[in-house]
Amino acid sequence: MTGPVNERKASLNMASRPRLARGVRMREDKVRGRTVLLAPERTVALDETGIAILNQLDGKSTLRQVIDTLAETYDAPADVIEKDVVAFLDDLGARRFLEFES
Amino acid sequence: MNAPPGIHPPMAMLAELTHRCPLACPYCSNPLDLKTRAEELETREWVRVFGEAADLGVLHVHLSGGEPAARPDLVELTAAASGSGLYTNLITSGIGLNEKRMDALADAGLDHVQLSVQGVDEQAADRVGGYTGGYRRKMDVARMVRERRIPLTVNAVCHRQNMDDIHCIIDLAVELGARRLEVATVQFTGWATVNRQQLMPTRAQVAETTAAVELARRRLKGVLVIDYVPADYYATYPKACMGGWGRVGLNVDPSGKVLPCHAAEMIPGLVFDNVRDKSLAQIWYDGDAFNAFRGTEWMKQPCRTCERREIDFGGCRCQAMAIAGEAAFADPVCAKSPHRYLVDQAIESLGVDFVEADFRYRAAPERTR
Ligand code: SF4
Ligand code: SF4
Questions:
Q1: What is the DSSP-derived secondary structure letter of residue B278?
Q2: Alpha-carbon distance B311 to B292, whole Å?
Q3: ipTM, 2 decimals?
Q4: A17, A75, A88, A94: which has the fewest Cβ within 10 Å?
Q5: A40 vs B57, B89, B177: nearest CB
Q6: Domain residues of chain A, as ranges?
Q7: Residue A40 and residue B57: Cβ atoms within 8 Å?
């Protein structure tokens, strides 16, 4: 079992361990040939970057580790990746799509 | 079946599993002519429909009613919808759910619960819902949902008699641990049409609510997402009703009749197909009712040449029917509509004083026959 989940306020920092909240899931949308994120009353079409980021969220890796893994996988500078990842996850956090293990 | 060019597959399906409901909200969007239990689709029929919906491209299914928990097979239906890959949302009053059933629903893969609240305290809420003990039950159901970590949306239909409590409604949603709050201003379809006087909010109430929602959105960023459906009758332009007719979603009523929107049956001359006779794909792509107001071809002036025709699709067909007298007219709330004066007259005719207990409550299906 992992630790308690901060359900109230979603705040993101380099030590937080984000993952998709219960009730938010990524799915193939075969009919339209794309991948979507499904959440309460929302459908978000994902691009390659979004899919790559979400695939790294397991509630165990810290945000720092997620960024480093992506930087390594895509052979890109960590500060560039960091900007993309933080912007993407901030947005998901504001929509209450994420949970953070503490 | 192949999709004809220009018609997109639907994203969402509202499955009205039953019209039965222990509550009797005076604004219930169910039709005045409620379907009885004997007319309802059987379990296996719904299971087939969920499969067809998923194949057609539906992503979200809303298990609704009436009160969906009035169906003894709700868990089985949820499992079937979820098993087809659909995102399952239960739209409920909370009555008919207990710990055991919630466990079973969670196990069946239920993704989200949308709980209606009729007011911010026991007395007010139970008066509007017409069901004593309903408010307490809801508070308990909210806890059950929260404990199972299923995302919770609180849904509050706002009208003249509860809009002044908007701040308390927002606080209540936070207290209940909701991730999302839906503040929906009453729409005049179904039972609300017979309670217009009692429900129509004033212009001042609407302005106050809009401001309160804006403030709360900022204050509660990252805590509560607020979706707000403002009152269109005080707006300049109509809403894109249903995101456009036959464009985003469909409704299946308890008897299997497929509607482009829940109120569509009030439009005379439309022929509605039933899932008992045809596949959902045939109905969506070829059905007369869906094609009647799809796109912009059917439009008359002022919509036909309006620059907003692909933005609001001429607004609500049912409202055009109800107020302007023809479904193909522009939504009469539109400032460009020659019938806008009728909406203004309706607003002006509102009494300043109104009798609080004056609701005409929604009936039970069997009693409307
Ligand atoms: S609006 Fe009220 S009466 Fe109608 S289905 Fe919902 S809870 Fe029941
Ligand atoms: S004229 Fe028709 S299309 Fe233009 S804004 Fe009004 S309702 Fe919408």
A1: S
A2: 18
A3: 0.84
A4: A75
A5: B89
A6: 16-101
A7: no
